[in-house]
Amino acid sequence: MADLSVQFCGVRIKNPVLAASAEPTLNAGNMNKCIEAGAGGVIAKTMTDSPAMRELTTRSKWRFLDQRHEVCHGKVPRAFSLYGRSGLALETPEEFLPEIRKTLKFAADNDAVVVGSIGSTEISGWVELAKQMEDVGVPLLECNFGCPHPKMMPGVRTGMNVGQDFNYACEITQAVAEAVRIPVMIKVTPQVNDLVGFSGRLLDVGAKAVTLTNRFIGFVPDIESGKPLIWGQAGIGGPWVKPLTLRWIREVYLAYKERVAIAGTNGAYDWRDIVMFVMSGADIVEMCSAVMVYGYEWLGKQVKGLEEWMDAKGYKSLAQMKGIAAEAALPYANMPSEKARVIEDACIGCKRCLDACFYNAMQDGGEKTHVLEENCIGCGGCLSVCPQAGAIEINVV
Ligand SMILES: Cc1cc2nc3c(=O)[nH]c(=O)nc-3n(C[C@H](O)[C@H](O)[C@H](O)COP(=O)(O)O)c2cc1C
């Protein structure tokens, strides 16, 4: 059987599927359910000393949206969006730390890991919260520099407001890393230009891992009422975001693979996605939205699916898969030459491929389509629109 365990910043985690810091990890009761379901661990809801960020959670709102970005009713499609807002942990640090303590005990009995997450508005606050988390006994600490909501809250300098200010983010990271002995992970916002350079700076000042990435800010009008859903701008994400996240995971992995641990989050729906995250360079994957749609059990199902798939493919460990797709990606200049070929016996002559060929390579041959080789550059548009499996091949020439 495949070994799903990971060494993450020196901490053994039994499998790479963790519940992300969010409502499924809002308190000990919720975190225990994630652990019971089979998650390798939980990242606790972000503990904060900001009353505004606690208060925001008392007014949390979200909607699952379909492909048209309209509110789902009952059936949530695979490519859904989670449009919503929520603040940080509801309790003050003094009230929240006992929740962590309870979860740590339950986690120890179930071979799971509890990661602390913190968010403050002052450097001294970050340091204080980090020390409190270390004292309570978490083996890893995540600093939330990615939460999108403070961007919509004038004067609240935390979350994405920190993640977009690289100098300030590095100051906090250095102060926290110097104040605690446990490894520090930095969860970043995707709404910046250069996550590779930023990640390098974070590692230079003491971070041991980066969490790539928190969610985006979006805006969704309801065309019937002419008003925005849930009253205005909100965080947005969902499985469709995955390629954007994987791009950063790949680039950060390739740039710092000797010294970075990567937690992937933002877009992982199921075990197939977890494989994609790992092949792009992630060590562990933090899941939220899919758990909010399907419940805690979703986590355990993905652990099982991952294990079965690895067994079927003959992968013995996650290390065998880690970063393999990241390494295999070619620069544009090195892409091989390809051409389309129509398999005449399979072609049904529907001519869909003619509409999708903008290089005029697909030719109407009456009952069958044929390829004008000198025009074909092997773009592959024809392959995607062809309704007949096996009627078009794209071959390296
Ligand atoms: C309702 C909600 C609350 C969240 N709260 C937090 C939080 O307190 N701290 C944090 O770091 N991230 C928070 N997140 C972000 C998630 O941890 C996660 O990184 C993000 O949703 C992307 O993962 P996903 O695609 O699996 O949903 C929250 C997300 C949602 C949807």
UniProtKB/TrEMBL annotation:
This protein's assembly is summarised as:
Heterotetramer of 2 PreA and 2 PreT subunits.
> Which residue numbers delimit the 4Fe-4S ferredoxin-type domain?
338-363, 367-397
Q: Which PROSITE patterns match?
A: 4FE4S_FER_1, 4FE4S_FER_2
Q: Which UniProt keywords apply?
A: Iron, Iron-sulfur, Metal-binding, Oxidoreductase
Entry-linked InterPro entries: 4Fe4S_Fe-S-bd (IPR017896), 4Fe4S_Fe_S_CS (IPR017900), Aldolase_TIM (IPR013785), Dihydroorotate_DH_cat (IPR005720)
User: What is the annotated role of this protein in its UniProt record?
Assistant: Involved in pyrimidine base degradation. Catalyzes physiologically the reduction of uracil to 5,6-dihydrouracil (DHU) by using NADH as a specific cosubstrate. It also catalyzes the reverse reaction and the reduction of thymine to 5,6-dihydrothymine (DHT).
Per the record, its GO cellular-component terms are:
cytoplasm
Catalyses: 5,6-dihydrothymine + NAD(+) = thymine + NADH + H(+); 5,6-dihydrouracil + NAD(+) = uracil + NADH + H(+)
A Gene Ontology biological process noted in the UniProt record is: thymine catabolic process
Under PANTHER family, the record lists: DIHYDROPYRIMIDINE DEHYDROGENASE [NADP(+)]
Molecular function as annotated in GO: dihydropyrimidine dehydrogenase (NAD+) activity; iron-sulfur cluster binding; metal ion binding; NADP binding; uracil binding
Q: Which leading EC class covers this enzyme? A: oxidoreductase
What family is this protein classified in? Belongs to the dihydropyrimidine dehydrogenase family.
Name the source organism: Desulfomonile tiedjei (strain ATCC 49306 / DSM 6799 / DCB-1)
Q: Recorded E.C. number(s)?
A: 1.3.1.1
| Name of the protein in question | dihydrouracil dehydrogenase (NAD(+))
